[in-house]
Amino acid sequence: MSYLKFNNGDRISQVGLGTWKSEENKVGEAVKHALKTGYTHIDCAAIYGNEAEIGEALTDIFKNSDIKRDDIFITSKLWNNAHRKEDVIPALKQTLSDLQLDYLDLYLMHWPVAFKSGLYGFPESNDDFLSLDEVPLIETWEAMVEAKNQGLVKHIGVSNFSIKKLEDLMNKSDTAPEMNQIELHPYLQQEEMLNFCNKHQILITAYSPLGSQDRTPEMKANDEPTLLDNQMVNTIAEKHKVTAAQVLINFHVSRGCITIPKSVTPSRIEQNLSSLEFQLEQSDLNQLKELDKHYRYVNGKFFETSDGKYHNIYDE
Ligand code: A2P
After folding, report:
1. Residue at 229 is within a domain
2. Where in the numbering of this chain does the NADP-dependent oxidoreductase domain appear (predicted)?
3. What 3-state class would DSSP assign to 239?
4. What is the model's pTM?
């Protein structure tokens, strides 16, 4: 197993189980299978709508196996409808209740975007959004700092933040984010973000590490296959006698990132963890660098408003 460390010495496994899009009635079994296979890290979020089922699975595991709460690392994320300072801790407590836990190892601000307090689901109009002047990110962040001070979470961080937003938060707060969880894969390598986070001791978690089963419009226009079908990735996989998915997961580990491949399929859950059992060579990594084409699957456009409250979410 391969771990990275937070500044206080706490460890996080570089390969965790993702639960975004994990279907109802499957996610609980997936979590149990992962923990029995040797995973120690599960990535969750309130908006995934499956924390209650994960909570039942965790309770079952603690009752019926040797695995203890302290042996594992659980992340969750604050949804955009609870960014006001008075909403943060109640939202966190709801997640803790759903997950049947006393504390989280890591709590992330899911997006640098605020909705009206308590808005259910996704916004339908501009009025459903609160601007960052109305609820500045620092307000949400300081409430997360308070949650950490209260012992409800051990570490705090952000997700989908640009370098500019990270810098802004770090200038305004005495407490720097300990993690930025972002979309990352060979088609979107974000070298500048990696260098920035490395310099400031912010860990990075790669989401959508396998790319996607879908192709972006640019990929379709350029007649590019998905990452799992990419010729170069598959040639490297054949050389190491592993699968394309294992190459993609190992790519993140080799770059010093954490990654959270989602699967509800037992054999794939096992396969993904065993991506730690081989090493890509520098020549493989050099080749994979050529795939950096800035193809983003989660483009943030769904949060852009026509009144300009939100545009260019990633500050690019
Ligand atoms: P499934 O859950 O049905 O096993 P990402 O984490 O990059 O979003 O990728 C998740 C997608 O990739 C899911 O559709 C998942 O399917 C699939 N997947 C996960 N692990 C593997 C693997 N080892 N090989 C092929 N597909 C995988």
Report:
1. no
2. 15-292
3. helix
4. 0.97
